[in-house]
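Example record for the data management plan.
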Amino acid sequence: MIGHKLILMTMLCILFFVGCDLTKQERFITEELDYAEEQGETIRVYEYKNDQLLRLTTADKVDRFYERRRTDSINIVITDYNPDGSIKTIFSADNMSIDEVRDIYTATGNVVIEQVDTILYTEHLVWDQSIDEIYSPVEITLIRGDNILKGFEFRSDSNFHHIELSMVTAEGKLDEEDLLW
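Corresponding structural encoding:
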């Protein structure tokens, strides 16, 4: 019986002395986790040039990472304006990550880009604003007037003037000028 008590006491001492040294584990946890330096909820950011409104950005949640120069947003809507104050583009998504160094916006979940005569729907989109190129590897739906295009591997400029699309299906009346997108 004394042998069992001695073994039990030895085990408890080992657990106490070894189990209480958390410095290595704590250091590992704090080094591995990625914390945002700035966080905000229900934000609105207005961008002006002189007195002209250029862009309004709204989001339910924003995390800003200074060292990596990245901003992650949830339920984001970016509205760009024309010089006359009319809306040029509305870009919305469930989630968006902005690479501030390369000026690349990566959007996922219910991605929509609306312009005066065109609406694009997809689940994943990458917008490289530095070269004005939009890309989506997954299925997209592009509606222009009464015409609907669906396809994959979408590439275009932000005004939808030059469009590339694979495995295309179309609905509506397509005139020759429509085929030169």
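Summary line stored alongside the record: Confidence is low (pLDDT under 50) at residues 21-32.
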